[in-house]
Design a protein that fits this description.
Blueprint: H1 2-13, H2 21-37, H3 42-57, H4 67-82, E1 98-103, H5 110-123, E2 128-132, H6 140-151, E3 155-156, H7 167-180, E4 185-189, H8 198-211, E5 215-221, H9 228-238, E6 243-247, H10 256-265, E7 269-273, E8 281-283, H11 286-294, H12 297-323, H13 329-341, H14 345-350, H15 359-363, H16 367-378, H17 382-386, H18 393-403, H19 407-431
Parallel strand pairs: 1-4, 1-5, 2-3, 2-4, 5-6, 6-7
Antiparallel strand pairs: 7-8
Helix pairs in contact: 1-2, 2-3, 2-4, 3-4, 4-11, 5-6, 7-8, 9-10, 12-19, 16-18, 18-19
The structure holds guanosine-5'-diphosphate and magnesium ion (MG).
Magnesium ion binds near residues 111 and 189.
Amino acid sequence: TLSDRLTSVLKNLRGKGRLSEADIDATCREIRIALLEADVALPVVRGFIAHVKERAKGAEVSQALNPAQQVVKIVNEELVGVLGGETRRLNLAKNPPTVIMLAGLQGAGKTTLAGKLARWLRGQGHTPLLVACDLQRPNAVTQLEVVGERAGVPVFAPERGNGVGDPVEVARRGVEQARHAQHDVVVIDTAGRLGVDQEMMRQAADIRDAVRPDETLFVVDAMIGQDAVTTAEAFRDGVGFTGVVLTKLDGDARGGAALSVRQVTGQPILFASNGEKLEDFDVFHPDRMASRILGMGDVLTLIEQAEQVFDARQAEQTAAKIGSGELTLEDFLEQMLAVRRMGPIANLLGMLPGAGQMKDALAQVDERHLDRVQAIIRGMTPAERQDPKMINASRRQRIARGSGVTVSEVNDLVNRFFDARKMMAQMAGRFGLPGSGGLGK
Ligand code: GDP
Ligand code: MG
């Protein structure tokens, strides 16, 4: 499997120091096979890989991951990004009812989706109405009525018994009915054909023109694989759509259709269907789809763990240094940068339980002061940061000049650093942190 192959690539590359072009190429070869195996269309694979290579070449070398892991991480991030990053929400009309039209091939799962969507919308506090515009197959209307009943949502259907009705007329009257009976969302189920054909497209386009939907959702079976691209293009050109719904994700399809449709049409994937029951339905999650397409959830887990272990190891080393009073200004700067990356310090501390009384004190924390501290430490040589005791009077003058502060500010920082180091070592001893044998040097 891909995971096995990638694991062997990871092994081969373990221990190398930087992202070389050969590393990137080797990993991308495996990714390419994975994407093709997941039924992503070839041109989409090519474009995607080229983009990943470009980004990997400019990537900073990670300390936690080996090169192959790092490339996989980039691939995953790009994939999640292409698939939509954060999920887009349904567009609701400013003046209800919101009209949602479903389009797609026969058997794609439109009628089932109509029921799922109705149930879901109800759960969100909406009052949907289903409209049966598939008058092509004799039992299509009945199927929607059954689904509607299960969802607890009314269905608007043409009167039976006077031959084949006009779906455009039914759609129009359905929306009228919704306005009249104060349904705030209308879901229009339409007919499909087994293959793309002009008549079906024309009918869908006529319904579209009659009701001007706020959303037209292209419903596509994830199992159709490579065909997803041509089908999506046909519907884009014939009817146009504003969003995509993937169905039958409970099958063994790896979901390459998701990437293809998204790349080729540029329209977001809004929902995912994964079963025949009404509750087998969810908003689309790009991250889950990405790991399904890559088919290496275990590799991604490994990468996450490696990063966590790295963090933990670094924290442990810092703790040991604190305990033995060996903390350097370099560590101090690193810690400060790490904390600041998480957001303004006041916010961060404010989130701690029991920080209530500290609020006033926290309000005093001055971010600009931290900027100056950072500037001062940056103005020191590596040797000075490593061994702050060597920072004598003339060095303090040089540092002050270099970082645009006064000598007394440098003095202040260095003195407070020594105080803090001593205090932290004492606290570490009390809390039993590693290395706390040798107290405050
Ligand atoms: P339509 O022709 O586009 O309206 O498709 P239908 O809603 O009638 O669905 C066609 C078949 O696919 C039916 O047997 C459904 O039960 C089944 N189906 C629809 N969605 C899913 C799904 O997400 N998973 C599975 N396993 N079957 C589905
Ligand atoms: Mg149907």
